[in-house]
Amino acid sequence: MEGLLGSIPYSTPLLKILVLIALVAIIKLSLKILKISLPYVIKKNKLRYHVQDVSALISGLIFLIVAAVFFTSEIKEFAIPFSVIGAGIAFSLQEVIASIAGRIIIVITGLYQVGDRIQIGEMQGDVISIGFMRTSLMEIGSWVKADQYSGRIVHVTNAIVLKDNVVNYSGTFPFVWDEIVVPVRYGSDQHTARQILITITNQIVDQYTEMASEKWQDLRKLYMIGTPSFDSVVTLVANDNWLEFTVRYLVPYENRRSTKDKLFLNIVDAFSKTDSNIEFASMTVEITNFPKLAVDVDK
User: Fold this and answer.
1) Distance from the Cα of residue 11 to its chain's centroid
2) Domain boundaries, the chain
3) How many whole angstroms separate alpha carbon 144 and alpha carbon 142?
4) What angle do CA 280, 145, 154 make, to 5 degrees?
5) Architecture of the domain delimited by 175-272
6) At residue 211, does pLDDT exceed 70?
7) What are the respective helix, strand and coil percentages of the chain, to the nearest 5?
8) Residue whose C-alpha is closest to residue 125's, from 161, 158, 167
9) What are the C-alpha distances in Å from 267 to residues 70, 182, 184, 204, 205?
């Protein structure tokens, strides 16, 4: 074995390739050991993932640097053939290259990170992994009519950030303005209805106002943006069928559905205690004219 190794000069491409293969094996083994041991050392899932992600990135950079150093002379000697081959590879792997470029943009610009709730194109979900090629989402919505998990894991190419919009619900400002519509029958006490709606809404969402204000100030440090009102608002529109109250309020993005549930539960209870002074409206159909029918009893 020693004689065989001794007969292979260090500068030969074969030995360099063998060293690179050994390096890949060592890197993969090290990452595997790290992945197994990290849960015993780091308890926080998000921090543990970031350590794994950074370790994989550093390992990849080490491999590229070693490969570049090893094959510097070969690259110089075969510069023209390599450039032609490289152009062909770049053309055939343009989607792969775009995905890697997307990964770099995600890291540099901070478009999103693990744990964020985002929407890319038509896909919406919580980010559970960001790889070199793809971002993995725990899907929300789809056939589920709310911001709840559907149970599907969706893998989206990182290249999509270069050509489609990215919406981040949980970045610097993890709140959204939401609305509910409350139809009330004509003849109901609209003033009392409005007061009930605003009182109930404030009781439920006022706890978020101070935190939202602080997060908004952080947002103003990054963007040229004014300061809106964080107070809940109730507006009224009289349409052909009923009085339509719209309740607008601020809520953490992950609490939209539970907040709507609390609001409607309290509103229904409050309206039922008004001795029919306030009643919910429903669609009614009034027939004002009925066509004449000719009936021939002989037939």
Assistant:
1) 49
2) 2-92, 111-168, 175-272
3) 5
4) 165
5) 2-Layer Sandwich (3.30)
6) yes
7) 50, 20, 30
8) 167
9) 72, 9, 12, 12, 14
Q: Which residue's entry shows tokens 């409350």?
A: 182
165-192, pLDDT tens digit by residue?
Answer: 888 888 888 999 999 999 999 988 999 9
- Within the chain, how many helices (H) and strands (E) appear? 9, 8
- Residues 205, 251: Cα–Cα separation, whole Å: 7
Predicted pLDDT at 1: 41
CA 15 to chain centre: 46
Structure tokens at 216: 């908004």
For residue range 219-274, list pLDDT tens digits in order: 888 888 888 889 999 999 998 889 999 999 999 998 999 999 999 999 999 998 88
Give residue for tokens 């969402």: 205
Give the amino acid at 207: Q
Distance of alpha carbon 111 from alpha carbon 104, whole angstroms: 11
Residue 81: which residues within 8 A CB-CB, separation 6 or more?
A: none
Q: Which option is the CATH number for 111-168: 3.90.1300.10, 2.60.120.260, 2.30.30.60, 3.40.640.10?
A: 2.30.30.60
Per-residue model confidence (pLDDT) at position 295: 63
Q: Which two tokens stand for residue 173?
A: 């400002």
Gap between the terminal Cα atoms of the chain: 110
Looking at per-residue pLDDT, the higher value among 272 and 38 belongs to 272
Between CA 96 and CA 175 the distance in angstroms is 35
Q: Which helix (H) or strand (E) holds 232?
A: none
Instruction: Give the global pTM.
Output: 0.66
Contact 248, 235 (CB under 8 A): yes
pLDDT cut 90: percent of the chain above it: 23
**Angle CA(148)–CA(150)–CA(154) in degrees, nearest 5?**
115
CA distance 123 to 242: 36
Judged against a pLDDT cut of 70, whether residue 11 lies above it is answered with no
